[in-house]
Design goal:
The complex is a heterodimer of chains A (about 600) and B (about 350). Chain A is of the alpha/beta class. Chain A has three domains: about 220 residues, Pyruvate-ferredoxin Oxidoreductase, domain 3 (3-Layer(aba) Sandwich), CATH 3.40.920.10; about 190 residues, Rossmann fold (3-Layer(aba) Sandwich); about 100 residues, Rossmann fold (3-Layer(aba) Sandwich). Helix content of chain A is about 35%, strand content about 20%. In chain A, the strands form five sheets. In chain A, strands 11-10-12-13-15-14-20 form a seven-stranded mixed beta sheet, sandwiched between helices. Chain A has a six-stranded mixed beta sheet with strand order 3-4-2-5-6-7, sandwiched between helices. Chain A has a four-stranded parallel beta sheet with strand order 19-18-21-22, with helices on both faces. In chain A, helix 13 links the parallel strand 12 and strand 13. The longest helix of chain A has 21 residues. Chain A is globular and about 80 Å long. Chain A starts with 7 loop residues before the first strand and ends with a helix. By secondary structure, chain B is of the alpha/beta class. Chain B has an eight-stranded mixed beta sheet, sandwiched between helices. In chain B, strands 10-11-12 form a three-stranded antiparallel beta sheet. Chain B has a two-stranded antiparallel sheet with strand order 5-6. In chain B, helix 2 crosses helix 7 and helix 4 crosses helix 5. Classes of the chains: A alpha/beta (about 600), B alpha/beta (about 350). The interface between A and B is large, with 70 and 60 residues.
């Protein structure tokens, strides 16, 4: 099908699909990613879309983008700059040109570059001139008119015909990367099972785009070979789905029923949706009337013996604070997932940030310690959701799991685990041999109390938000309060016994240690790798356990001349480390733009410290 | 035989070892006696009761009951109780709350638990005042009530509990008086047997901050003439001499005297608590003295599917229809490829 000899081989490439939020760019990007993953490339994706479901058409505010970074070696980030930009209208150019590599390829729907659309996008004159598009490999494809022509015999209304534009553009990109159309065709057949005319229309658009790209000869095909990844079964998974599945896996391993009580909130809703669909695995999913009822219903379910979960994002976490305090006081297991977004207040609902860290650690009244974990890639959301549930149940404590909008919506190929390889979870149910049941009697090692579930004979007891004695009697005795506060604190501190040590990527000692937590992982890894390759003595560590911290922090930190903490906030983790390990000096790299770091930013700032 | 005798529970079995700390003369003492009597007659084992409360004087209730209990945070007991019931539908779940806890800070959760018809029994102690914080007006205080936070009288209309329950699609609403332990016990038993959210409003006396607020209808010497105890299937007759009744006059209820103007017993409305149309129940729940007697007893008790049972049947259906039986199945479902 393809002429030989003209193919360019590349290590990796970044493609950004962008258009109006109604143009189907998220789907186009997802389909491309799945095809690339099936071919064997490693990849990472990043959807970037507006909060408005349908922002005014043609405006920069309404541009929806989907970036995918694929390569023939391990891919850690969705990439800083796009090699190929697909822009369905002038606003998409306006929004994305600064994220496109100078000289890269830009595919536009020429038919959409009308005077009106150019003006709506905020250009004062011709975008080609204003944004120097002649400095790029600009492919001006008349996509709208070509799908109209290709589908004219199908007896479809004009609106439906124009909806296939994204498939035409996708077809062009498939040709460019020498990919098969088979997977996308199968998807279309399944998606439009009951509407055969739409299967046909979309397939025709897809093929027309493919052949158009071949015909115009303006594009040089690019080859990216499969990545040498470990043998096994793989699938693409987003952070939110991985989180949901980690919780499901924990329910299976603990033998507990999974209960999720949540209220829809961007970008966390996907977890609730995923679990609501899992009736087949017995999930009890409850869409509550508000954030507070979400966690309170979960806490009730925990009292009654379920694996209880509530999911939310920053403002929702604020609303749940009082109930988290109740979980601390009653020492009931519960997992609170906070998919962080730009704040404060409503902030930037669809954008990413890491600024809920201190809220998670300290945002409650009284001495109210909880375990805090943070996932750092879309796929390790599975691992840390599982771990959050394990710790919550085995240590009888609330656990907050921090992810973020970037992890939640980003996808990666994931080597599917086998359930037999995951650890067992042992709920500390109170034993019949140990009657009478004493609610706040503790495991001597972990200091966690034992779980007596309503329905169990002879263990009737009362718990609540008031301070209690060991026996569960309300007590205002000063010494008792101090004792209980210390015990709850110690209980959380003792989770550290099983927290794995920090792993340094790179040399164990050097000039600069890059420190981070959560979703900044991929950008730090890449920046550090590139600087290591240039001969710098730089290493990287990622914290997934925030409270309690791993045991070897002091040891690791002391082996570097300088420490720099990278995070998407004004320095919350750096300040936390200053409190915990004041003997070190911490430099900071911070960013609060609702966007992930770029590798370039981290590299440049590190270089100044080297 | 011995076993059967031992298994028969008495009210005493439900008393915990905690000393009751409500004020002497508080209506709560009588309420807990009635609840303990009702529990002992339900034939439900002790360990299957879960009592959930929020914050307020009434919410100390779980500590005094020898069952599973959860004294939670202000206003949230409906949500917590919903979670308990969904997690284990086999439990008999009771929510203890007050007019402030349920209708002010917990108003949102209250209407939604009623709307969803989660099978929990909600005993709402209505003393029309905040007691634990020492005497501020509540959402059920009469307009104009002078309290510490309304020194010139309140300027807001109060909620009527029954009106709110019916407005929230409630299927069970009853009203009783704290001191009437016999009536209260019967109502709690009926509420426990009703499948779905059951709200019982108890006209409760706060001896310290709102003493005698319900006296005008509940005092011994006037109560027969000023209250109507509804019984399903029986005419709505009341009065010391059983000589007064209710009829429908146009679109309104009207108090009539038997024997006067040719009114006979057959003219009096017969109570149908199971009628799904809430029209008459709404009017009965809203009757106020002096125009009407205050309705007591089970005003509305309409069967309907419960939330937790619908949830369980969706799960059963999901399990029977899906090929995914465990996590390994899920992990390997959909587009998975081998490298």
């Amino acid at each position: 099908m393809r002429k030989k000899g003209t193919v360019i081989e590349k290590e990796d490439v970044v493609i950004r699909f962008s258009g109006d939020s109604g143009d189907g760019m998220q789907l186009t990007g997802t389909l491309f990613s799945e095809t690339a993953a099936l071919y064997g490339n490693d990849l990472t994706t990043f959807p970037d879309y507006p909060a408005e479901i349908r922002a005014p058409q043609g405006t920069v505010g309404g541009v929806s983008g989907f970036q995918v970074h694929l390569g023939q070696s391990e891919i850690y980030t969705p990439g800083d700059y796009a090699d190929v930009l697909v822009a369905m209208n002038p606003a998409a150019i306006r929004a994305n040109i600064k994220w496109t590599k100078f000289g890269g390829t830009i595919i536009i729907d020429k038919d959409n570059f009308t005077e009106k659309n150019i003006e709506k996008a905020g250009y004062e004159s011709d975008p080609v001139v204003e944004d120097n598009l002649d400095q790029y490999n600009l492919i001006e494809a008349p996509i709208s008119s070509m799908v109209k022509e290709a589908l004219k015999d199908l007896n479809l209304d004009p609106k439906t015909i124009l909806r296939t534009k994204n498939m035409f553009a996708l077809g062009m990109v498939y040709w460019l990367f020498d990919r098969k159309l088979k997977y996308t065709e199968q998807y279309l057949e399944k998606k439009f099972r009951s509407k055969p005319e739409l299967i046909e229309a979309n397939k025709i658009a897809l093929h027309s785009g493919y052949y158009y790209a071949e015909t115009i000869e303006a594009l040089a095909p690019i080859r990216i070979n499969p990545a040498p990844i470990a043998k096994g079964k793989y699938r693409n998974i987003s952070g939110n789905t991985a989180t949901a599945w980690g919780l499901l896996a924990a329910a299976e391993k603990s033998g507990l029923e999974l209960f999720i009580g949540s209220y829809p909130i961007t970008p966390a809703t996907g977890i609730l949706e995923e679990l609501a669909a899992r009736k087949d695995l017995g999930v009890k999913s409850f869409q509550a009337e508000d954030e507070i009822a979400g966690i309170c219903s979960a806490l009730g379910a925990s009292f009654a013996g379920n694996l209880a979960v509530t999911t939310t994002s920053g403002p929702g976490l604020a609303l749940k604070s009082e109930a988290i305090g109740l979980a601390v006081m009653t020492e009931l297991p519960i997992v609170i997932v906070d998919v962080q977004r730009g704040g404060p207040s409503t902030g930037l609902p669809t954008k990413t940030e890491q600024a809920d860290l201190l809220q998670a650690l300290f945002g409650r009244n009284g001495e109210s310690p909880v375990v805090v974990l943070a996932a750092s890639t879309p796929t390790d959301c599975f691992r840390y959701a599982f771990e959050a549930a394990r710790i919550a149940v085995e240590h009888m404590t609330p656990v907050i799991l921090l992810t973020d909008g970037y992890l939640a919506n980003g996808t990666e190929p994931w080597r599917v685990p086998a359930m037999k390889d995951l650890p067992e979870i042992h709920p500390p149910f109170a034993s019949n041999k140990d009657l009478p049941y004493v609610p706040y009697k503790r495991d001597p090692e972990k200091l966690s109390r034992f779980w007596a579930v309503p329905g169990t004979p002879n263990m009737e007891h009362r718990i609540g938000g008031l301070e209690k004695t060991v026996k569960g009697t309300v007590s205002y005795v000063p010494e008792n309060h101090e004792l209980m506060v210390n015990l709850r604190n110690q209980k959380v501190a003792r989770v550290a016994a099983k927290v794995p040590d920090l792993e340094v990527s790179g040399e164990e000692e050097g000039d600069l240690l890059v420190v981070g937590w959560g979703g900044s992982y991929g950008y730090r890894v890449m920046a550090v790798k590139e600087l290591q390759a240039q001969g710098y003595r730089i290493s990287n560590v990622t914290f997934n356990y925030i409270n309690p911290l791993p045991g070897n922090v002091r040891d690791v930190f002391s082996r570097f001349k300088k420490i720099v903490v990278c995070e998407l906030n004004l320095g919350q983790f750096a300040n936390y480390l200053r409190m915990k390990y004041p003997e070190f000096h911490y430099e900071q790299i911070t960013k609060v733009q609702g966007l992930p770091f770029t590798i370039k930013e981290i590299k440049e700032k590190c270089l100044k410290l080297l | 035989m011995d076993e059967i005798i031992n298994n028969k529970l008495t009210p005493k079995d439900f008393k915990s070892d905690q000393e009751i700390r409500w004020c002497p003369g508080c209506g709560d003492h009588a309420i807990i006696n009635a609840v303990q009597r009702a529990f002992s007659e339900l034939g439900i084992p002790k360990e299957k009761f879960a009592i959930i409360s929020g914050i307020g004087c009434s919410s100390r209730f779980p500590y005094y009951m020898n069952t599973y209990g959860f004294h939670s945070i202000h206003g949230r007991a409906s949500a917590i109780a919903s979670g308990v019931k969904m997690a284990n539908p086999d439990l008999s779940v009771w929510q203890i709350t007050g007019d402030g806890d349920a209708l002010a800070i917990g108003g949102n959760h209250f209407i939604h638990v009623v709307r969803r018809n989660v099978d929990i029994n909600i005993i709402l102690f209505n003393n029309e005042i905040y007691g634990l914080t020492k005497g501020q007006y509540s959402p059920t205080s009469d307009k104009g009530l002078v309290t510490k936070t309304s020194p010139y009288g309140t300027i807001e209309d109060p909620f009527s509990v029954g009106e709110l329950v019916i407005g929230a699609k409630g299927k069970f609403f009853a009203r009783t008086v704290d001191a009437n332990v016999t009536l209260s016990t019967q109502i709690y038993i009926e509420a426990a047997r009703h499948k779905g959210a059951a709200v019982i409003e108890v006209l409760q006396n706060c001896v310290i901050f709102n003493d005698g607020i319900h006296e005008k209808v509940t005092a011994k010497e006037v109560r027969d003439d000023r209250t109507l105890i509804l019984k399903h299937g029986e005419p709505m007759i009341f009065g010391k001499n059983n000589d007064k009744g209710l009829i429908l006059d146009g679109l309104k209820l009207k108090v009539v005297k038997l024997g006067e103007k040719g009114i006979r017993e057959k003219d009096i409305l017969v109570h149908d608590a199971a009628e799904s149309n809430p029209g008459i129940h709404y009017m009965l729940a809203n009757m106020r003295y002096p125009e009407y007697p205050v309705a007591l007893g089970v005003i509305r008790s309409v069967p309907g599917p419960t939330y937790e049972m619908e949830m369980a049947s969706q799960i059963e259906l999901g399990k029977s229809k899906s090929r995914i039986r465990n996590m390994d199945d899920l992990l390997n479902s959909g587009s998975v490829w081998e490298v």
